[in-house]
Protein backbone atom coordinates (compact mmCIF):
# COMPACT_ATOMS: atom_id res chain seq x y z
CA UNK A 1 0.00 0.00 0.00
CA UNK A 2 1.40 3.37 -1.02
CA UNK A 3 2.09 5.85 1.73
CA UNK A 4 0.59 9.31 1.61
CA UNK A 5 3.04 12.06 0.74
CA UNK A 6 5.13 13.37 3.61
CA UNK A 7 3.88 16.92 3.15
CA UNK A 8 0.27 15.75 3.53
CA UNK A 9 1.12 13.87 6.72
CA UNK A 10 2.83 16.90 8.22
CA UNK A 11 -0.02 19.19 7.23
CA UNK A 12 -2.71 17.03 8.88
CA UNK A 13 -0.63 16.32 11.99
CA UNK A 14 0.17 20.00 12.43
CA UNK A 15 -3.46 21.06 12.05
CA UNK A 16 -4.46 18.51 14.72
CA UNK A 17 -1.71 19.75 17.06
CA UNK A 18 -3.03 23.31 16.73
CA UNK A 19 -6.31 22.05 18.21
CA UNK A 20 -4.57 20.20 21.10
CA UNK A 21 -5.36 16.79 19.57
CA UNK A 22 -2.89 13.98 18.97
CA UNK A 23 -2.84 12.37 15.52
CA UNK A 24 -0.90 9.08 15.53
CA UNK A 25 0.00 6.88 12.61
CA UNK A 26 -0.36 3.14 13.25
CA UNK A 27 2.75 1.01 12.99
CA UNK A 28 0.95 -1.07 10.41
CA UNK A 29 -2.00 0.15 8.39
CA UNK A 30 -3.99 -3.02 8.93
CA UNK A 31 -7.35 -1.23 8.86
CA UNK A 32 -6.65 0.78 5.75
CA UNK A 33 -6.82 4.04 7.70
CA UNK A 34 -3.98 6.47 8.19
CA UNK A 35 -4.43 8.24 11.50
CA UNK A 36 -5.88 7.65 14.95
CA UNK A 37 -6.94 10.97 16.50
CA UNK A 38 -7.27 11.53 20.25
CA UNK A 39 -9.09 14.71 21.18
CA UNK A 40 -8.21 16.95 24.13
CA UNK A 41 -9.83 16.13 27.45
CA UNK A 42 -13.23 17.76 27.84
CA UNK A 43 -13.84 19.87 30.91
CA UNK A 44 -15.24 17.75 33.75
CA UNK A 45 -16.34 19.09 37.10
CA UNK A 46 -16.82 15.78 38.87
CA UNK A 47 -14.50 13.38 40.66
CA UNK A 48 -11.37 12.53 38.69
CA UNK A 49 -11.93 8.79 38.91
CA UNK A 50 -15.36 9.27 37.26
CA UNK A 51 -14.13 11.36 34.36
CA UNK A 52 -15.09 10.06 30.88
CA UNK A 53 -12.39 8.78 28.50
CA UNK A 54 -10.96 10.98 25.79
CA UNK A 55 -12.95 11.03 22.57
CA UNK A 56 -11.27 9.44 19.56
CA UNK A 57 -11.73 9.09 15.81
CA UNK A 58 -10.12 7.48 12.77
CA UNK A 59 -9.03 9.40 9.69
CA UNK A 60 -7.92 8.53 6.19
CA UNK A 61 -5.85 11.12 4.34
CA UNK A 62 -6.04 11.66 0.61
CA UNK A 63 -3.81 14.12 -1.17
CA UNK A 64 -3.69 15.79 -4.56
CA UNK A 65 -1.35 18.19 -6.32
CA UNK A 66 -4.01 19.14 -8.85
CA UNK A 67 -7.49 20.63 -8.70
CA UNK A 68 -9.41 17.34 -8.55
CA UNK A 69 -11.47 16.74 -5.41
CA UNK A 70 -12.56 13.20 -6.24
CA UNK A 71 -10.28 10.59 -4.63
CA UNK A 72 -11.27 6.93 -4.20
CA UNK A 73 -11.39 4.62 -1.20
CA UNK A 74 -11.57 0.84 -1.19
CA UNK A 75 -14.94 -0.60 -0.30
CA UNK A 76 -13.27 -2.84 2.28
CA UNK A 77 -12.04 0.29 4.08
CA UNK A 78 -15.48 1.89 3.84
CA UNK A 79 -17.08 -1.24 5.35
CA UNK A 80 -14.79 -0.96 8.39
CA UNK A 81 -15.63 2.73 8.68
CA UNK A 82 -19.40 2.15 8.42
CA UNK A 83 -19.59 -0.80 10.80
CA UNK A 84 -17.47 0.77 13.55
CA UNK A 85 -19.29 2.68 16.32
CA UNK A 86 -16.38 5.20 16.37
CA UNK A 87 -16.31 8.38 14.27
CA UNK A 88 -14.46 8.03 10.95
CA UNK A 89 -13.42 10.88 8.67
CA UNK A 90 -11.88 11.22 5.21
CA UNK A 91 -9.68 14.26 4.53
CA UNK A 92 -8.41 15.58 1.21
CA UNK A 93 -5.27 17.72 1.46
CA UNK A 94 -4.17 19.79 -1.52
CA UNK A 95 -0.63 20.98 -2.00
CA UNK A 96 -1.83 24.58 -1.74
CA UNK A 97 -2.65 23.99 1.93
CA UNK A 98 -6.42 23.59 1.57
CA UNK A 99 -8.07 20.78 3.57
CA UNK A 100 -11.44 19.21 2.83
CA UNK A 101 -13.23 16.87 5.21
CA UNK A 102 -16.21 14.54 5.12
CA UNK A 103 -17.69 12.34 7.85
CA UNK A 104 -18.58 8.68 7.26
CA UNK A 105 -22.21 9.15 8.24
CA UNK A 106 -25.57 9.95 6.69
CA UNK A 107 -25.37 10.07 2.86
CA UNK A 108 -21.79 8.77 2.63
CA UNK A 109 -22.53 5.84 4.95
CA UNK A 110 -25.68 4.98 2.98
CA UNK A 111 -23.93 5.28 -0.39
CA UNK A 112 -21.05 3.11 0.83
CA UNK A 113 -23.34 0.34 2.07
CA UNK A 114 -25.25 0.39 -1.21
CA UNK A 115 -22.06 -0.07 -3.25
CA UNK A 116 -20.81 -2.75 -0.85
CA UNK A 117 -24.08 -4.63 -1.33
CA UNK A 118 -23.91 -4.18 -5.10
CA UNK A 119 -20.38 -5.60 -5.11
CA UNK A 120 -21.42 -8.60 -3.00
CA UNK A 121 -24.38 -9.40 -5.19
CA UNK A 122 -22.08 -9.15 -8.23
CA UNK A 123 -19.56 -11.53 -6.61
CA UNK A 124 -16.89 -8.80 -6.62
CA UNK A 125 -14.09 -8.67 -4.05
CA UNK A 126 -14.67 -5.48 -2.09
CA UNK A 127 -10.95 -4.88 -1.44
CA UNK A 128 -10.56 -4.51 -5.22
CA UNK A 129 -13.49 -2.13 -5.75
CA UNK A 130 -13.01 1.62 -5.31
CA UNK A 131 -15.65 4.11 -4.18
CA UNK A 132 -15.19 7.66 -5.53
CA UNK A 133 -15.55 10.32 -2.81
CA UNK A 134 -16.77 13.69 -4.08
CA UNK A 135 -15.65 16.68 -1.97
CA UNK A 136 -17.76 19.80 -2.50
CA UNK A 137 -16.60 23.37 -1.95
CA UNK A 138 -18.56 23.55 1.30
CA UNK A 139 -16.52 20.59 2.60
CA UNK A 140 -13.45 22.85 2.83
CA UNK A 141 -12.21 23.41 6.39
CA UNK A 142 -10.94 26.94 6.77
CA UNK A 143 -10.54 26.97 10.53
CA UNK A 144 -9.58 24.53 13.27
CA UNK A 145 -9.66 20.92 11.99
CA UNK A 146 -10.06 19.56 15.53
CA UNK A 147 -12.97 21.91 16.23
CA UNK A 148 -14.56 20.84 12.93
CA UNK A 149 -14.40 17.18 13.98
CA UNK A 150 -15.51 17.90 17.57
CA UNK A 151 -18.67 19.65 16.37
CA UNK A 152 -19.68 16.48 14.52
CA UNK A 153 -19.00 14.21 17.49
CA UNK A 154 -21.62 15.83 19.70
CA UNK A 155 -21.55 15.82 23.51
CA UNK A 156 -22.12 12.07 23.99
CA UNK A 157 -20.00 9.22 22.62
CA UNK A 158 -22.82 6.77 23.38
CA UNK A 159 -25.42 8.83 21.50
CA UNK A 160 -23.09 9.10 18.52
CA UNK A 161 -22.47 5.34 18.48
CA UNK A 162 -26.20 4.62 18.72
CA UNK A 163 -27.01 6.98 15.87
CA UNK A 164 -24.34 5.46 13.65
CA UNK A 165 -25.39 1.91 14.50
CA UNK A 166 -29.00 2.74 13.64
CA UNK A 167 -27.96 4.15 10.26
CA UNK A 168 -25.77 1.11 9.60
CA UNK A 169 -28.68 -1.26 10.29
CA UNK A 170 -31.57 0.65 8.66
CA UNK A 171 -30.15 2.58 5.68
CA UNK A 172 -31.58 1.24 2.47
CA UNK A 173 -34.71 -0.14 4.13
CA UNK A 174 -36.70 3.10 4.02
CA UNK A 175 -39.28 1.60 1.66
CA UNK A 176 -39.43 -1.90 3.12
CA UNK A 177 -37.21 -4.77 4.16
CA UNK A 178 -37.86 -7.31 1.47
CA UNK A 179 -40.35 -9.55 -0.24
CA UNK A 180 -42.03 -12.44 1.48
CA UNK A 181 -44.35 -15.17 0.29
CA UNK A 182 -46.62 -17.04 2.67
CA UNK A 183 -48.63 -20.08 1.64
CA UNK A 184 -51.64 -20.61 3.94
CA UNK A 185 -54.39 -23.16 4.01
CA UNK A 186 -57.99 -23.13 5.21
CA UNK A 187 -60.55 -25.87 5.75
CA UNK A 188 -63.09 -24.08 3.60
CA UNK A 189 -64.08 -20.73 2.16
CA UNK A 190 -65.77 -19.59 5.37
CA UNK A 191 -62.62 -20.10 7.45
CA UNK A 192 -60.61 -18.13 4.93
CA UNK A 193 -63.12 -15.27 4.74
CA UNK A 194 -63.65 -15.10 8.51
CA UNK A 195 -59.93 -14.71 9.13
CA UNK A 196 -59.49 -11.97 6.56
CA UNK A 197 -62.28 -9.90 8.14
CA UNK A 198 -60.71 -10.37 11.59
CA UNK A 199 -62.92 -13.04 13.15
CA UNK A 200 -60.94 -16.22 12.63
CA UNK A 201 -58.52 -18.13 14.83
CA UNK A 202 -55.65 -17.86 12.38
CA UNK A 203 -54.78 -19.67 9.14
CA UNK A 204 -52.28 -22.49 8.99
CA UNK A 205 -48.98 -21.49 7.36
CA UNK A 206 -47.73 -24.19 5.00
CA UNK A 207 -44.54 -22.44 3.89
CA UNK A 208 -42.75 -19.09 4.07
CA UNK A 209 -40.05 -17.60 1.83
CA UNK A 210 -38.29 -14.26 2.19
CA UNK A 211 -35.86 -12.29 0.02
CA UNK A 212 -34.06 -9.33 1.56
CA UNK A 213 -34.31 -6.12 -0.51
CA UNK A 214 -32.02 -3.25 0.47
CA UNK A 215 -31.37 -0.11 -1.57
CA UNK A 216 -33.63 -1.62 -4.23
CA UNK A 217 -31.13 -4.45 -4.71
CA UNK A 218 -32.86 -7.79 -3.97
CA UNK A 219 -30.73 -10.49 -2.42
CA UNK A 220 -30.07 -13.58 -4.46
CA UNK A 221 -30.35 -15.74 -1.33
CA UNK A 222 -33.89 -16.73 -0.38
CA UNK A 223 -34.71 -17.69 3.19
CA UNK A 224 -37.19 -20.55 3.10
CA UNK A 225 -38.95 -22.31 5.95
CA UNK A 226 -41.10 -25.34 5.24
CA UNK A 227 -40.03 -27.55 8.13
CA UNK A 228 -42.27 -26.12 10.83
CA UNK A 229 -45.92 -25.06 11.01
CA UNK A 230 -47.40 -21.86 12.32
CA UNK A 231 -50.47 -19.66 12.11
CA UNK A 232 -51.02 -16.20 10.70
CA UNK A 233 -53.52 -13.81 12.25
CA UNK A 234 -55.23 -10.83 10.65
CA UNK A 235 -56.13 -7.48 12.20
CA UNK A 236 -57.86 -5.65 9.34
CA UNK A 237 -58.65 -1.97 9.03
CA UNK A 238 -62.34 -0.99 8.69
CA UNK A 239 -63.56 0.09 5.27
CA UNK A 240 -66.28 2.30 6.73
CA UNK A 241 -68.64 3.03 9.61
CA UNK A 242 -72.29 2.20 10.19
CA UNK A 243 -75.21 2.42 12.61
CA UNK A 244 -76.68 -0.81 13.96
CA UNK A 245 -80.25 -0.93 15.28
CA UNK A 246 -81.46 -3.97 17.24
CA UNK A 247 -85.11 -4.58 18.12
CA UNK A 248 -85.70 -7.22 20.77
CA UNK A 249 -88.45 -7.81 23.37
CA UNK A 250 -91.56 -5.69 22.82
CA UNK A 251 -91.39 -4.32 26.37
CA UNK A 252 -87.87 -2.94 25.90
CA UNK A 253 -86.66 -0.05 23.71
CA UNK A 254 -84.43 -0.83 20.71
CA UNK A 255 -80.65 -0.66 20.92
CA UNK A 256 -78.73 1.76 18.71
CA UNK A 257 -75.00 1.08 18.30
CA UNK A 258 -72.18 2.68 16.37
CA UNK A 259 -70.20 0.16 14.35
CA UNK A 260 -67.34 -0.39 11.93
CA UNK A 261 -67.54 -2.19 8.59
CA UNK A 262 -64.98 -4.79 7.45
CA UNK A 263 -65.21 -6.31 4.00
CA UNK A 264 -63.48 -8.93 1.90
CA UNK A 265 -64.65 -10.50 -1.35
CA UNK A 266 -63.49 -14.14 -1.29
CA UNK A 267 -61.31 -14.83 -4.32
CA UNK A 268 -61.93 -18.56 -4.28
CA UNK A 269 -65.68 -18.60 -4.82
CA UNK A 270 -68.22 -16.68 -6.85
CA UNK A 271 -70.40 -15.58 -3.95
CA UNK A 272 -71.56 -12.22 -2.64
CA UNK A 273 -69.10 -10.26 -0.60
CA UNK A 274 -68.61 -11.22 3.03
CA UNK A 275 -69.10 -8.18 5.27
CA UNK A 276 -68.58 -7.81 9.00
CA UNK A 277 -70.49 -5.20 11.00
CA UNK A 278 -68.68 -4.77 14.29
CA UNK A 279 -69.72 -3.10 17.53
CA UNK A 280 -67.89 -5.16 20.20
CA UNK A 281 -68.88 -7.46 21.69
CA UNK A 282 -71.43 -7.75 18.86
CA UNK A 283 -70.19 -9.09 15.53
CA UNK A 284 -72.62 -9.53 12.66
CA UNK A 285 -71.38 -11.27 9.50
CA UNK A 286 -73.33 -11.00 6.26
CA UNK A 287 -72.45 -13.57 3.62
CA UNK A 288 -74.70 -13.68 0.62
CA UNK A 289 -78.30 -13.56 1.80
CA UNK A 290 -77.59 -15.05 5.22
CA UNK A 291 -76.12 -13.57 8.38
CA UNK A 292 -74.52 -14.68 11.64
CA UNK A 293 -75.02 -13.12 15.08
CA UNK A 294 -71.85 -13.44 17.20
CA UNK A 295 -71.08 -12.23 20.72
CA UNK A 296 -67.32 -12.28 21.20
CA UNK A 297 -65.05 -11.54 24.16
CA UNK A 298 -61.55 -12.99 24.39
CA UNK A 299 -61.28 -14.95 27.64
CA UNK A 300 -57.90 -13.50 28.65
CA UNK A 301 -58.54 -9.85 27.71
CA UNK A 302 -59.89 -7.36 30.24
CA UNK A 303 -62.86 -5.15 29.34
CA UNK A 304 -64.97 -2.67 31.26
CA UNK A 305 -68.36 -3.49 32.74
CA UNK A 306 -70.36 -1.72 30.01
CA UNK A 307 -69.12 -4.17 27.39
CA UNK A 308 -70.14 -7.17 29.48
CA UNK A 309 -73.50 -5.54 30.26
CA UNK A 310 -74.23 -5.23 26.54
CA UNK A 311 -73.13 -8.83 26.04
CA UNK A 312 -75.45 -10.08 28.81
CA UNK A 313 -78.38 -8.03 27.51
CA UNK A 314 -78.03 -9.32 23.96
CA UNK A 315 -77.72 -12.89 25.27
CA UNK A 316 -80.94 -12.43 27.22
CA UNK A 317 -82.70 -11.05 24.16
CA UNK A 318 -81.44 -13.85 21.94
CA UNK A 319 -82.76 -16.51 24.31
CA UNK A 320 -86.15 -14.84 24.79
CA UNK A 321 -87.21 -13.64 21.33
CA UNK A 322 -86.23 -13.09 17.73
CA UNK A 323 -84.01 -10.06 17.15
CA UNK A 324 -84.56 -7.76 14.20
CA UNK A 325 -81.43 -6.03 12.94
CA UNK A 326 -81.03 -3.06 10.66
CA UNK A 327 -77.72 -1.64 9.41
CA UNK A 328 -77.56 1.91 8.11
CA UNK A 329 -74.85 3.87 6.36
CA UNK A 330 -75.18 7.67 6.41
CA UNK A 331 -78.79 7.20 7.50
CA UNK A 332 -79.74 4.90 4.65
CA UNK A 333 -80.65 1.25 5.42
CA UNK A 334 -78.22 -1.09 3.65
CA UNK A 335 -79.20 -4.45 5.18
CA UNK A 336 -81.99 -5.86 7.29
CA UNK A 337 -82.48 -9.33 8.73
CA UNK A 338 -84.02 -11.20 11.62
CA UNK A 339 -82.15 -13.61 13.87
CA UNK A 340 -84.29 -16.40 15.29
CA UNK A 341 -84.62 -17.01 19.01
CA UNK A 342 -81.86 -19.25 20.28
CA UNK A 343 -82.91 -22.65 21.54
CA UNK A 344 -79.69 -23.09 23.52
CA UNK A 345 -79.33 -22.63 27.24
CA UNK A 346 -78.43 -19.17 28.52
CA UNK A 347 -75.41 -18.87 30.83
CA UNK A 348 -77.22 -17.99 34.06
CA UNK A 349 -73.99 -17.63 36.04
CA UNK A 350 -72.67 -14.97 33.65
CA UNK A 351 -76.04 -13.21 33.57
CA UNK A 352 -76.31 -13.12 37.37
CA UNK A 353 -72.78 -11.78 37.83
CA UNK A 354 -73.14 -9.00 35.26
CA UNK A 355 -76.57 -8.02 36.63
CA UNK A 356 -75.15 -7.85 40.15
CA UNK A 357 -72.13 -5.80 39.09
CA UNK A 358 -74.39 -3.42 37.15
CA UNK A 359 -76.56 -3.00 40.24
CA UNK A 360 -73.48 -2.16 42.30
CA UNK A 361 -72.36 0.25 39.58
CA UNK A 362 -75.57 2.22 40.05
CA UNK A 363 -74.51 2.98 43.65
CA UNK A 364 -70.73 3.35 43.44
CA UNK A 365 -68.20 4.21 40.75
CA UNK A 366 -66.94 1.10 38.93
CA UNK A 367 -65.26 2.95 36.06
CA UNK A 368 -61.87 1.73 37.30
CA UNK A 369 -62.91 -1.92 37.20
CA UNK A 370 -61.77 -3.97 34.23
CA UNK A 371 -61.76 -7.75 34.20
CA UNK A 372 -61.64 -10.74 31.88
CA UNK A 373 -63.72 -13.89 31.58
CA UNK A 374 -60.78 -15.73 33.11
CA UNK A 375 -60.92 -13.34 36.09
CA UNK A 376 -64.60 -14.19 36.58
CA UNK A 377 -63.84 -17.91 36.55
CA UNK A 378 -61.10 -17.47 39.14
CA UNK A 379 -63.54 -15.57 41.41
CA UNK A 380 -66.11 -18.38 41.41
CA UNK A 381 -68.09 -19.61 43.27
CA UNK A 382 -68.05 -16.74 45.79
CA UNK A 383 -68.62 -14.07 43.14
CA UNK A 384 -71.68 -15.80 41.74
CA UNK A 385 -73.13 -16.42 45.19
CA UNK A 386 -72.77 -12.75 46.11
CA UNK A 387 -74.19 -11.45 42.83
CA UNK A 388 -77.06 -13.96 42.85
CA UNK A 389 -78.20 -12.32 46.09
CA UNK A 390 -78.79 -9.15 44.06
CA UNK A 391 -80.96 -10.64 41.31
CA UNK A 392 -84.59 -9.59 41.12
CA UNK A 393 -85.78 -13.15 41.61
CA UNK A 394 -87.42 -14.05 44.89
CA UNK A 395 -85.25 -15.88 47.41
CA UNK A 396 -86.28 -18.58 49.85
CA UNK A 397 -84.71 -18.52 53.28
CA UNK A 398 -85.13 -21.52 55.55
CA UNK A 399 -84.00 -22.18 59.12
CA UNK A 400 -85.22 -23.85 62.25
CA UNK A 401 -88.01 -21.99 63.91
CA UNK A 402 -85.85 -21.70 66.98
CA UNK A 403 -83.18 -20.07 64.86
CA UNK A 404 -85.53 -17.46 63.40
CA UNK A 405 -87.91 -17.31 66.27
CA UNK A 406 -91.63 -16.80 65.86
CA UNK A 407 -91.63 -13.00 65.92
CA UNK A 408 -92.89 -11.11 62.92
CA UNK A 409 -90.22 -10.47 60.30
CA UNK A 410 -91.03 -7.83 57.69
CA UNK A 411 -87.63 -7.68 55.96
CA UNK A 412 -84.16 -9.20 55.89
CA UNK A 413 -80.99 -7.11 55.72
CA UNK A 414 -77.79 -8.87 54.71
CA UNK A 415 -74.19 -8.24 53.70
CA UNK A 416 -72.87 -9.86 50.53
CA UNK A 417 -69.37 -9.45 49.11
CA UNK A 418 -66.80 -11.00 46.79
CA UNK A 419 -63.33 -10.29 45.44
CA UNK A 420 -62.53 -9.72 41.79
CA UNK A 421 -58.96 -9.04 40.60
CA UNK A 422 -57.95 -8.08 44.13
CA UNK A 423 -60.82 -5.61 44.54
CA UNK A 424 -63.55 -5.96 47.15
CA UNK A 425 -67.16 -5.59 45.94
CA UNK A 426 -69.57 -5.33 48.87
CA UNK A 427 -73.28 -4.62 49.19
CA UNK A 428 -75.66 -4.04 52.09
CA UNK A 429 -79.16 -4.90 50.88
CA UNK A 430 -82.64 -5.52 52.23
CA UNK A 431 -85.39 -7.75 50.87
CA UNK A 432 -89.02 -7.61 52.00
CA UNK A 433 -90.57 -10.77 53.40
CA UNK A 434 -93.49 -11.56 51.07
CA UNK A 435 -94.59 -14.69 52.94
CA UNK A 436 -93.67 -16.57 56.08
CA UNK A 437 -94.66 -20.09 57.06
CA UNK A 438 -93.78 -22.63 59.75
CA UNK A 439 -93.88 -26.36 59.18
CA UNK A 440 -92.88 -28.33 62.24
CA UNK A 441 -89.53 -26.93 63.37
CA UNK A 442 -88.80 -25.32 59.98
CA UNK A 443 -89.59 -21.70 59.25
CA UNK A 444 -89.59 -20.58 55.63
CA UNK A 445 -89.33 -16.96 54.46
CA UNK A 446 -89.94 -15.87 50.86
CA UNK A 447 -88.00 -12.70 50.09
CA UNK A 448 -88.95 -10.21 47.38
CA UNK A 449 -86.78 -8.00 45.20
CA UNK A 450 -83.71 -6.47 46.84
CA UNK A 451 -83.11 -2.85 47.68
CA UNK A 452 -79.48 -1.84 47.85
CA UNK A 453 -78.89 0.36 50.87
CA UNK A 454 -75.19 0.89 50.15
CA UNK A 455 -72.46 -0.48 47.86
CA UNK A 456 -68.68 -0.38 48.03
CA UNK A 457 -65.82 -0.89 45.62
CA UNK A 458 -62.33 -1.05 47.15
CA UNK A 459 -59.38 -1.79 44.89
CA UNK A 460 -56.37 -3.60 46.36
CA UNK A 461 -58.50 -4.64 49.34
CA UNK A 462 -57.03 -6.00 52.58
CA UNK A 463 -58.46 -7.92 55.55
CA UNK A 464 -58.96 -4.59 57.32
CA UNK A 465 -61.55 -3.71 54.68
CA UNK A 466 -63.56 -6.80 55.67
CA UNK A 467 -63.75 -5.43 59.20
CA UNK A 468 -64.80 -2.05 57.82
CA UNK A 469 -67.69 -3.66 55.93
CA UNK A 470 -68.97 -5.26 59.16
CA UNK A 471 -68.80 -1.87 60.83
CA UNK A 472 -70.77 -0.38 57.93
CA UNK A 473 -73.37 -3.12 58.31
CA UNK A 474 -73.73 -2.30 62.01
CA UNK A 475 -74.20 1.36 61.12
CA UNK A 476 -77.07 0.54 58.76
CA UNK A 477 -78.51 -1.97 61.22
CA UNK A 478 -78.93 0.75 63.86
CA UNK A 479 -81.24 2.60 61.48
CA UNK A 480 -83.63 -0.40 61.55
CA UNK A 481 -83.74 -0.76 65.33
CA UNK A 482 -87.46 0.05 65.45
CA UNK A 483 -88.35 -2.20 62.50
CA UNK A 484 -89.02 -5.94 62.28
CA UNK A 485 -85.84 -6.63 60.28
CA UNK A 486 -83.83 -9.83 60.47
CA UNK A 487 -80.09 -8.97 60.36
CA UNK A 488 -77.73 -11.43 58.65
CA UNK A 489 -74.20 -9.97 58.45
CA UNK A 490 -72.64 -13.42 57.92
CA UNK A 491 -74.75 -14.65 55.02
CA UNK A 492 -71.70 -15.30 52.79
CA UNK A 493 -70.09 -17.45 55.49
CA UNK A 494 -73.34 -19.43 55.88
CA UNK A 495 -73.44 -20.04 52.12
CA UNK A 496 -69.81 -21.25 52.19
CA UNK A 497 -70.68 -23.74 54.96
CA UNK A 498 -73.68 -25.01 53.01
CA UNK A 499 -71.53 -25.34 49.89
CA UNK A 500 -69.00 -27.42 51.83
CA UNK A 501 -71.69 -29.67 53.25
CA UNK A 502 -73.14 -30.23 49.78
CA UNK A 503 -69.71 -31.29 48.52
CA UNK A 504 -69.36 -33.84 51.30
CA UNK A 505 -72.75 -35.34 50.52
What is the arithmetic mean of pLDDT?
88
Please give the number of β-strands: 26
Number of helices: 13
Give the proportion of residues in helices: 25-40%
What sort of overall outline do the alpha carbons produce when their principal axes are compared?
A: elongated
Alpha-beta content class: alpha+beta
Percent of residues in β-strands? 25-35%
List the main descriptive attributes of the protein structure presented here.
505 residues; alpha+beta; seven-stranded antiparallel beta sheet; six-stranded mixed beta sheet; 13 helices; elongated
SSE layout:
Elements: H1 6-18, E1 22-24, E2 35-38, E3 56-64, E4 72-74, H2 75-83, E5 88-94, E6 99-103, H3 107-121, E7 130-132, H4 145-153, H5 157-170, E8 178-185, H6 189-196, E9 203-214, E10 217-225, E11 230-232, E12 240-247, E13 255-264, E14 274-279, E15 282-287, E16 290-295, E17 303-304, H7 305-318, E18 323-329, E19 332-339, H8 348-361, E20 370-371, H9 373-379, H10 382-388, E21 395-400, H11 401-404, E22 411-420, E23 423-439, E24 442-447, E25 451-458, H12 463-478, E26 485-488, H13 491-504
Parallel strand pairs: 3-5, 22-26
Antiparallel strand pairs: 1-2, 2-3, 4-7, 5-6, 8-9, 9-10, 9-11, 12-13, 12-18, 13-14, 14-15, 15-16, 17-20, 18-19, 21-24, 22-23, 23-24, 23-25
Helix pairs in contact: 2-3, 7-8, 8-10
Plain-language structure description:
29% of the residues lie in helices and 34% in strands. It is built from 13 helices and 26 strands. The strands form 6 sheets. Strands 16-15-14-13-12-18-19 form a 7-stranded antiparallel beta sheet. Strands 21, 22, 23, 24, 25 and 26 form a 6-stranded mixed beta sheet that branches. Helix 2 crosses helix 3, helix 7 packs across helix 8 and helix 8 crosses helix 10 (382-388). The longest helix has 16 residues, at 463-478.
Amino acid sequence: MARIPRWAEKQFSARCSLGDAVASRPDEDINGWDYFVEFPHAQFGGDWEKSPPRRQAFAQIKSTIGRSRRPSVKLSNMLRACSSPDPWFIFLIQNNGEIYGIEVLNDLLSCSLKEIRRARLGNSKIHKVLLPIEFALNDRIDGDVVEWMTQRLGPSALAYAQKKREQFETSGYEHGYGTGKIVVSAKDEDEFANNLIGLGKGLAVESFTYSDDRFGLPDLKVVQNTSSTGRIFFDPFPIGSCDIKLIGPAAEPPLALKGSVFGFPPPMAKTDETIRFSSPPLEVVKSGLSGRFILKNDDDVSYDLSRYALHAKLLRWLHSTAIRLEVRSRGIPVWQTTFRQSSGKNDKTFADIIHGLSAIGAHTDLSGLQFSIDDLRRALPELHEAMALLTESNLRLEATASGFGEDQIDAVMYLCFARLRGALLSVIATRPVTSSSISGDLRRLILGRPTIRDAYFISDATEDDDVTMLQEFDRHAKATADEAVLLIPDLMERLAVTRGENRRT
